[in-house]
Specification:
The structure is a homohexamer of 129-residue chains. By secondary structure, chain A is mostly helical. Chains in contact: A-B, A-C, A-D, A-E, A-F, B-C, B-D, B-E, B-F, C-D, C-E, C-F, D-E, D-F, E-F.
């Protein structure tokens, strides 16, 4: 049932983010409750929870892609944090973003690194790795 | 010396691709020899050879980014092949590209998968994994 | 005459936006008066006023495209408001942006929805639909 | 159940495209059967079948977005054809793509129009509107 | 009058390209005659003919932008040729495209250089610089 | 030696920007010292200092590309300022950005012009051309 997809996605997303889904999607639910639900079901209930690729590699892929695209800093912020939560080190995040200078240009890498800097500072304040 | 960067990059690229750099860059050297040299020096002699991230994760990042950007199928083809050469399985490539449907949309994922299909078919012809 | 294009575009843009062109372009006129003029003449005096597609469908197209491109939130804000002014409902705006999750990825849709949320809140303050 | 989503999406996609899903996804199924399934379930079983926006407007949005993004000509071809199948006229397709010159630049519009030209020629051969 | 813009644009474009506008736009006129007309009027009749920037610098800007965007190889081909016609050397084209490796990544630069290689070969066949 | 590349890039960047490299890269050095070093070495020590294209034309290319890409306003700000420092006039900057309306759409041009407006205002405060 769809219900299974939502529950599986909720669990996946909460495990990765350390934040309750209700709090994460609070603003979105008010305007677009179905997009909020899809955001749990398809990315986390269908795709990211799949067994064929380890969760750390999945976050490497997402941090790389969002850095390269360069137009989703809010999502990049969240995914860098989730990458750290699932086992990436800060040094590895810095490597992934640095590498994007090659494939998407220096501005994309520099802007991605500014987001990482914010994430690291926030996590320092929270006492997180 | 710059010479060190080129030699290090050449070795890195040849190890990953299984192809001699001279053959790979033959067309480019005729028109833009310095860009050909930079393509070895900076991406492979400076960045991809860095110790801070394992080579398999680096190729996960690159395959994800090129699939998401969606405008470099020739390079995506080469990097999927290099990913397979450094330890990714075909199933993992399929997972990375599938995941890009979430972050860059279904057309990007479908077009990336078409490139992967070509790579897999070519490697079948060559008896490669 | 070019003058006709400007007058036609001005009328078209003012009808859609409910704002005088002078106020809208005030900041731009000071630095780039000809770009300000072109912004009225070509988009609104040549294209958007054409009879071959109804004005509501034109705004559906523009909201979709700006959401998908993801790098013009100021313009997306203005075009969501114009879409509402020419007959789109808020529910339809939410549908268009949700659909972009399919074609441009979830980050593009989520960022577009955040812009829509701002537009709706501002219109609530102004007592607009 | 998920099964419902697939069946609903299959019916939606087949109605819009006039082509059986098995034929459409044949190449993809061989390499990435789950992405093939997701391509039916999420875009067509969840989103495009939603009642909140008429199907013609949905195709206006998709044709606009794919023209603006400019890196998915195969999908743009399919969606122009589906737009014609659900009630858009060729003249309206031409208007949507022309309008993208404003929002994404002339190269994007010219390349989108070349795709439309191919679609129209193919439909002429098939005796379709 | 609009007529003036078209005539001015036609002259500008023909001078830059060395090709008659009718031949250039032949395919487009059949499907979208107004977009064909706009393509002459706005880019060439309004913008590129402006006195505030020399024509060679204008082509430097366009070749750089199309290389960086990476999704309009047909237009990049035409603009490299026009750049050569208005005074850029082949060596300068190679420099512009090489520089895009910095700002848009190596794939964009390598793909741009492949287009330049085609243009240079075609001009060799035609005995052009 | 690599050291030569850094020193040459430092000199090039400081000449163009009028700002010391240490101040420019201060924030980046703390998180990603090697990316900071690469940002001097490759763009400025390898590419921008090359003799084959005059420095003013190089900045025309970069301002055009960053305006068209539309997702790096911080870098566009810096490059507009450097363009002015190496001999572009404000009127020429306005022309380059206006021209991007043709190749990347009006939103990209309008957002680029907003950045230029900020640069011009800041330089007015500093008494710079």
């Amino acid at each position: 049932m769809d219900n299974d997809r939502f529950e599986r996605g909720k669990k996946q997303l909460e495990t990765m983010s350390g934040v309750g889904v209700d709090a994460m999607l609070e603003k979105l639910v008010g305007i677009a409750p179905d997009l909020a639900r899809y955001t749990v079901e398809f990315p986390y209930g269908d795709v990211v929870c799949r067994p064929g690729l380890d969760i750390k590699s999945r976050q490497v892929a997402t941090v790389a892609a969002l850095t390269a695209l360069g137009n989703a800093p809010v999502q990049l912020n969240a995914h860098i944090s989730m990458a750290l939560n699932v086992g990436c080190t800060r040094a590895e995040i810095v490597e992934i973003i640095t590498q994007m200078a090659v494939y998407a240009g220096f501005p994309a890498a520099l802007n991605g690194m500014a987001v990482a800097k914010d994430v690291f500072a926030e996590r320092d304040r929270q006492g997180l790795s």
